[in-house]
Automatic annotation (TrEMBL), chain A:
It comes from the Bacteria. SMART domains: AAA. One of its GO terms (molecular function) is ABC-type amino acid transporter activity. The lineage of its organism: Bacteria, Pseudomonadati, Pseudomonadota, Alphaproteobacteria, Hyphomicrobiales. It is a peripheral membrane protein. Gene3D superfamilies: P-loop containing nucleotide triphosphate hydrolases. It comes from Rhizobium loti (Mesorhizobium loti). Keywords: Amino-acid transport, ATP-binding, Cell membrane, Membrane, Nucleotide-binding, Transport. It is found in: Cell membrane. This is Ectoine ABC transporter ATP-binding protein /hydroxyectoine ABC transporter ATP-binding protein. GO terms for cellular component: plasma membrane. Belongs to the ABC transporter superfamily. Residues 8-253 form the ABC transporter domain.
From TrEMBL, chain B:
Keywords: Amino-acid transport, Cell membrane, Membrane, Transmembrane, Transmembrane helix, Transport. It is found in: Cell inner membrane; Cell membrane. Belongs to the binding-protein-dependent transport system permease family. HisMQ subfamily. InterPro entries: AA_ABC_transptr_permease_3TM, ArtM/GltK/GlnP/TcyL/YhdX-like, Ectoine_EhuC, MetI-like, MetI-like_sf. One of its GO terms (biological process) is amino acid transport. This is Ectoine ABC transporter membrane protein /hydroxyectoine ABC transporter membrane protein. It comes from Rhizobium loti. The lineage of its organism: Bacteria, Pseudomonadati, Pseudomonadota, Alphaproteobacteria, Hyphomicrobiales.
Length: 263, 219
């Protein structure tokens, strides 16, 4: 694969919940190492896109290529067949996700939350998994809480552990779905700082869904504005936030600023 | 009045049989509960159907009839069980059917976000079940398991019908030998009650221990 091939290639996907069509022929591409922010009004399908990439929702039609391989299909003798669990398992190794509500395992301490998946899915020996976990916990500033149970942590601390947990599998692509929106305002910054550092220091591809426009501006190389399952406008953060071309983008940003979010 | 000590000895022996039955029956019930409870949640239709059939059948027929089948009817197809084996089998299968629904309910009570975290971390179905879902579900199951175990303890009395010398059987022996009804039956009433209390207490302290595990710092 040449360096300029997209790592994510979404090709005409559609997705309905019941009779409600969330995505209708959406196509987009993401280049390796790109930091992408997905913004847009509530219900525009941002979460759905991330969940589809994480295989938490299935698509009704279209194709997705991750790192040159079909996500939901397997190529067999030139034919495309629906992916089986084994194929999905292999593809999921390339992708990690951090959730709005952290989804930590409440019965496991911080360290075990981080080491569980590498030990089970990659057969990493405990010592090596813990060493790596310690490095990651240090990076997110949680090394001193390694033995604590999640119930004892603040929301911001939980989210930083969740980030370390997803990183422990070294995915090529990281998905972040409103990772600060469940946090008390004074805890938002600590999580954003971790993510800024991550964006600056790694060449991972990152997709970020957020309602924090200032953060999207700092974090992203490219911003996509979604409305009703469609990309209305995309461009560099400065273009989108300072000089939005589309009326709907302008309206959305105005509303967000009026609601007190900074840009 | 010296003969009473001998009779109490009999009743104590009966208590040991009852405890043995309760423990062995509970082990079988626990095994069946996980087998059938998880079977009902299986992706495979055959497993779901088998689990459902087992649960409905054993909940829908009487423990008496199940015991008589285990002891009197199975020999006709070449399976002869001792009274103890028949008792453990009937009690374990019967209570296991009820407890299976507890297992299923507890597993389903674990939030979708935990399953989704498992998927996002690429854990296999069984890995997620074993390391993430079941440990949390166990805490949900525990109180009802305690009730199930007490039900099982109380149901052990039926084995006296196939002449297993449990508490109830021995009380009847004492009654027929002494002509006194009140003393033996009052005694076993108290013993059953104390055993049930012990089960409640044991389950509650286990529950507390596990709940504490969700808090605090790991050594
Ligand atoms: N499991 C589901 N069942 C039914 N409808 C759903 C489901 N998930 C999402 N939807 C609907 O699909 C639409 C898109 O949802 P999605 O969560 O992707 O939006 P979003 O852009 O992330 O919104 P928000 O900014 O509020 O998080 C919404 O109208 C939502 O109600
Ligand atoms: Mg969303």
């Amino acid at each position: 694969m040449s360096a300029s091939a997209p790592i994510i290639k979404i090709d005409g996907i559609s997705k309905s919940f019941g009779s409600f069509k969330v995505l209708d022929g959406l196509s987009m591409q993401v280049m390796p190492g790109e930091k992408l922010a997905l913004i847009g009004p509530s219900g525009s399908g941002k979460t759905t896109i991330l969940r589809i990439l994480m295989t938490l929702e299935r698509i009704d039609g279209g194709h997705i290529q991750i790192d040159g391989e079909q996500l939901y299909h397997m190529e067999r003798n030139g034919q495309l067949l629906p992916a089986d669990e084994r194929h999905l398992t292999r593809m999921r190794q390339k992708i990690g996700m951090v959730f709005q509500l952290f989804n930590l395992f409440p019965h496991k301490c911080v360290m075990d939350n981080v080491t569980l998946a590498p030990m089970l899915t990659k057969g990493t020996p405990r010592a090596a998994a813990e060493k790596r976990a310690m490095e990651l916990l240090e990076m997110v500033g949680m090394a001193d809480k390694a033995k604590n149970m999640p119930a004892q942590l603040s929301g911001g601390q939980k989210q930083r552990v969740a980030i370390a947990r997803a990183l422990a599998l070294s995915p090529k692509i990281m998905l972040f779905d409103e990772v600060t929106s469940a946090l008390d305002p004074e805890l938002v910054e600590e999580v954003m700082n971790v993510m800024r550092k991550l964006a600056a220091e790694t060449d991972m591809t990152m997709l970020l869904v957020t309602h924090e426009m200032g953060f999207a501006h700092d974090f992203a190389d490219r911003v996509l504005f979604f409305d009703r399952g469609k990309i209305v406008e995309e461009g560099k953060p400065d273009e989108i936030f300072r000089h939005p071309k589309q009326e709907r983008t302008q309206g959305f940003l105005k509303k967000i600023i009026a609601a007190g979010h900074r840009v | 009045m010296t003969q009473w000590s001998g009779y109490f000895g009999l009743i104590l022996q009966g208590a040991l049989v009852t405890i043995e039955l309760t423990l062995m029956g509970s082990v079988l019930a626990l095994f069946m509960a996980f087998l059938a409870g998880m079977g009902r949640l299986s992706r495979f239709f055959v497993l779901r159907a088998l689990a459902t059939a087992y649960i409905e059948f054993f909940r829908g027929t009487s423990i008496f009839v199940q015991l008589f089948w285990a002891y009197f009817v199975l020999p006709f197809i070449g399976i002869s069980l001792t009274p103890l084996q028949a008792g453990v089998l009937a009690l374990g299968l019967n209570v296991g059917a009820y407890a299976a629904e507890v297992v299923r309910g507890a597993i389903q009570s674990i939030g979708r976000e935990q399953y989704e975290a498992c998927t996002a971390l690429n854990l296999g179905r069984w890995q997620g079940m074993r390391h993430v879902i079941l440990p949390q579900a166990l805490l949900v199951m525990l109180p009802t398991f305690g009730n199930n175990a007490i039900e099982l303890l109380k149901a052990t009395a039926v084995v006296s019908l196939i002449s297993l010398t449990d508490l109830t059987f021995q009380a009847q022996v004492v009654r027929s030998q002494t002509g006194n009804t009140l003393v033996p039956f009052a005694t076993i009433l108290i013993i059953y009650f104390v055993l049930a209390l012990l089960i409640s207490w044991g389950v509650r302290s286990l529950e507390r221990r596990m709940a504490r595990g969700l808090d605090g710092v790991r050594a």
